[in-house]
Amino acid sequence: MSEKPSGAGESTLTVVLALLVNLAIAVMKAIAGVVTGSAAILSEAAHSVADTFTEALLLTALRRSDRPADRRHPFGYGKERYFWSLLAAVSIFASGAVFAFYEGFRTVFGAPEEQTRPLVGYIVLGLAFALESVSWTQAFRQVRSESKKHGRGFRDFLRVSDDPTVKTVFLEDSAALIGLVLAFLGLGLHQLTGSSVWDGLASLAIGVLLALVAYTLARTNRGLLIGRQADSVVVKAIWHRLAGEPEVDAVVDLLTMLIGTDRVLLCARLDFVDTLTASELEIACVRISAELHAEFPDLDEIFLEPVPRTDPDLRRRVLERYGF
C-alpha cells in the first residue's frame, strides 16, 4: 500500500492520462473501422469506448472515496472506490466484449465482406499502439514503483493491491495493446487471403480477451467490497508488534479489514497480564494504539479488546475462522 498523498495523486494522473488517450484512440478506430469495413477494428473502437467510460468511472471512484467520515458513514467512504471500480469492470464487458462478440459472429457466419482501404487501418492501428503505449507505460511505472516499495514482486503486488484503479488501468491497457495486435493480424490475414473470416476471428479473440479482463477485475473488487483482510505481511507485523508489548500476555485474535485504499480497520483481542489495574490497562491501550498508528500509517481505526485467552466460546470462533 502506498503513501496516501503521493499514491492518490499518481493514481489520478494514471487514470486521467488513460482517459485522454482512450478517447482519442476511440475516435480514430471508429473512423478507420467504417472506412475499412473491418470487424476487428470496429471491435477495437468499442474496446476504446468501453475503456473511456471505465476511466470516467475510475475518476468518480477516486473523487468520491476520498470524502471524510461523517455521521452516516463513520468509517468513511473508502469502499466507494471498489464499487465504482466494479462498475468499470461491468462496463468493459458490456460495452467492449459484447460488441466484439457480436461483430465477430456477424462476420464469421454472415455474408463475406469486402475489405476497403486497409492501409488506413494499418496506420490507425499503429498510431493507436503508440498512444496506448504511453498510458500503459505510466500504469506500469506506478505498479513497479509501488511493488518495489512494499518488497513484493510485480505480479504479487497486482494480486494483493488494495487500489483497484491502478490495477484496472494497467490490465485494460495491456488488453488494449494485445487487442491492437489481434486487430492488425485480422486485417492483414483478410487482405492476404481475401476472406473476412480472419477479421471475424480476430474480433472474437478480442471479445474473449475483454471478457477475461472484466472477470478478473470484477472478482478483485467483489473481494474488496465483501471485506478483505489487510496485506498478510502487515497483519503478521502487527501481530508480532502486539505480542512484544510488556503489558500483553498473549494475542488471542487479530481481525483486519480493508475499508478503503490505504485504510485498514484493526480489531485486536488481547489477553493482558493479570497484575494490571484498570487505570494501567487504559493507559496501555492508549499508548499501544498511538504506537500502532505511528508505525503502520494505513491503520485508520484501531480497537483493542481485553479478553481472557481461556474463554471457550472465543477460542471456538477463532478455531473455526483460522482452522488452528
Element layout with pairings:
Elements (H helix, E strand, L loop, with lengths): L3 H33 L2 H27 L14 H30 L8 H32 L4 H7 L3 H30 L3 H30 L5 H12 L4 E13 L2 E10 L5 H18 L3 E8 L5 H11 L2
Parallel strand pairs: 2-3
Antiparallel strand pairs: 1-2
Helix pairs in contact: 1-2, 1-4, 1-6, 2-3, 2-6, 2-7, 3-6, 3-7, 4-5, 4-6, 6-7
Keywords, separated by commas or semicolons:
324 residues, mainly alpha, Alpha-lytic protease prodomain-like, Alpha-Beta Plaits, 2 domains, 3-stranded mixed sheet, disordered N terminus
Please tell me what the overall shape is: elongated
- The total of beta strands comes to 3
CATH superfamily of the largest domain: Cation efflux protein transmembrane domain
Corresponding CATH architecture of the largest domain: Up-down Bundle
How are helices and strands ordered from N to C?
A: HHHHHHHHEEHEH
| First-residue to last-residue Cα separation | 28 Å
> Runs with pLDDT <50, length 5+?
1-6
Q: What do we call the CATH topology of the largest domain?
A: Alpha-lytic protease prodomain-like
**Could you estimate the helical fraction of the residues in percent?**
over 70%
